[in-house]
Amino acid sequence: MTRSPPLWLTLPSRFAALSARHARIVAAVVAVLLLASLTMLGVPLPQGEPAGAGADRQTDVALYDGIVAAVAHGEDYYRAAADALRAGSYPLRPFLTFRLPVLASVQAMLPAPALLGLLWALAALAAWLWYRRLAAGLAATPARLVALFLLAGGLLAFVQPGLIAFHEIWGGLLVAISLALRRPGRWVEAVAIGAIAMLVRETAALYVLVMAGFALAEGHRREALGWAVALGIFAIALAAHAFAVHGVTGPLDAASPGWAGMHGFGLFVRAMTLATALQLFPPIIAALLAALALLGWASWRDPLALRAVTVFTAYAVTISLFARLDTFYWGLMIAPVYLCGLVFVPDALRDLSVRALDRRRVRVQRIGQ
User: Which pLDDT score, from 0 to 100, does residue 164 have?
Assistant: First the structure.
């Protein structure tokens, strides 16, 4: 059977090499994925504030801005954070309710224009690096333009001055840059930026764990050691952070309701729609597109895509199981390039349908003598 040339890709998708039986199994999984994405319609819209917040309660961004202002005036970070959390009726226990001090300290040192310039520079770097990686796998100019459009849609939240104090904004950009920089034999820069991402937002550790797992599974021992060292540095910083938080909190301080939301895949889809330009679409369309983006990443036959879809899946599982409605913003950690998976969908669906519908039969004929 002669295979049709790819529609947009330089090489056929992963699905082009599937047997008919395996293609039908994957098609069934895709159908389940699309149906599961529609459970987003039953997930309430988050309010963007901690659970139980009243109408007069400050937002998270206002909280972080207040902490930065106090640090800029010479106050100790942990004392300033504890006072701000109490004033806003936020929980102070366990220690993870406090953000690590790295971002607030940098913000307190830099003037606002310089900080905004740094944010935009990181967003531009992420867009440039990812456009280069994506363009290498796309054959036609229209496909590359679509990829650029999808990149812009994923980066909308990351260039907003009003969110500059939000840790996920910086953490998500750093994760995207780290993932784009990693290549076979070139991993030092990716590890270093991944380490910084963890020190800005602890949830970046999930990304680093995935990358360490890939390096170990592929036999890249030095790279695996590099990711392990980054995790070790993060663990030491987190332990010091816990000790410092213990010094400014007590047993009477409010405790977090915990991280066992169990809202399912629908909350992950909701998180991705709110973190990207998908929020501009009708909910049903946005939900289906969020699921198709994951399918697209899974179909691209490239080592980068395999790492990307594994990272996205890891965050999808984490958000589905542990995020609360008010922590939907965890999705920002993977939002910058998530929508780019849609550029691979035309080839993915074409190859999958062709393989699944293949009903060829091999006939053996005996010719008598």
Answer: 93
